[in-house]
Specification:
The protein contains seven helices and six strands; from the N terminus they run αβααβαβαβαβαβ. The protein has 240 residues and is of the alpha/beta class. The chain has one domain: 3-Layer(aba) Sandwich (Rossmann fold). Strands 1-6-5-2 form a four-stranded parallel β-sheet. It has a two-stranded antiparallel ribbon with strand order 3-4. Helix 5 runs parallel beside helix 7.
Length: 240
């Protein structure tokens, strides 16, 4: 589909004529344009590889076993998106949940086989912000045909009742520790939704993927057949 001439480039969504009711087939290609800088994505973390080698310690085995099938990103975490995500998460600019949800729904429609997904869950934040849960709830509302198995955020498969230290901006050791603490706080509420299921976990930002891999390990311990990840954005590669 050709790019609409009146479209603003993502994430200048506030000034775009499609901001309120734009179809995902306009918005998803717009958001994903920044991914064109990744010419040889790793099949696990989707970061740029060097030949057949991914520098991400998660993917090359230096962090132990890989429990997550793959982590796909909708866009890159480049300016001005970091400021927008901060406003959404910390300044109550919740209108962005509708846009992020549209991108999630469109990414599923264009990249995923419905037969390979039994449950789509939010990686819980454990705070009153619930930024991932808001996106999932909006995606469920926008899925007019009720095609995708989004978790019911009012009665979730699992949650995180308390807050744990954040991993964003931390060194590798801090990210490892934050991932362990995050997973230790998770609580399974609906075993029937997880056991034997193909689960997709939505999160906002991914750098190393260590936390999503730890969540995948826990979900597998709870009986999930497979676990994959979709993130709104990934940091441009410069990781360990």
């Amino acid at each position: 589909m050709p790019k609409p001439v009146d479209r603003e480039d993502f994430p200048n969504c506030e000034f775009c004529p499609y901001v309120q009711h734009g179809p995902w087939w306009v918005c998803v290609p717009c958001a994903s344009e920044s991914l064109s800088s990744i010419t040889d994505p790793c099949p696990i973390c989707s970061q740029e590889r060097e030949g057949d080698w991914c520098r991400n310690r998660l993917c090359n085995g230096q962090e132990g076993k890989i429990f997550i099938e793959r982590i796909e990103a909708i866009t890159l975490f480049v300016d001005p998106l970091p400021q927008i995500v901060h406003r959404y998460k910390y300044e109550h600019k919740y209108g962005w949940a509708q846009i992020f949800a549209r991108l999630l729904l469109g990414h599923l429609e264009t990249h995923w086989d419905l037969a390979g997904v039994d449950l789509i869950v939010a990686n819980p934040s454990g705070t009153d912000r619930d930024h991932t849960g808001r996106v999932l709830k909006s995606a469920k509302v926008q899925d007019f045909l009720d095609r995708w198995p989004f978790d019911n955020t009012d009665d979730p498969a699992f949650d995180k009742p308390g807050a744990t230290p954040q991993s964003a901006g931390g060194a590798l050791a801090e990210k490892r520790q934050a991932a362990v603490q995050h997973v230790s706080a998770l609580r399974l509420l609906r075993p029937d939704l997880v056991d034997g299921k193909q689960v997709v976990v939505y999160d906002d930002i991914c750098t190393t993927g260590l936390q999503l891999n730890a969540v995948a390990q826990q979900l597998r311990l709870w009986g999930a057949e497979s676990v994959s990840g979709i993130v709104l954005a990934r940091q441009p590669w410069g990781g360990p």
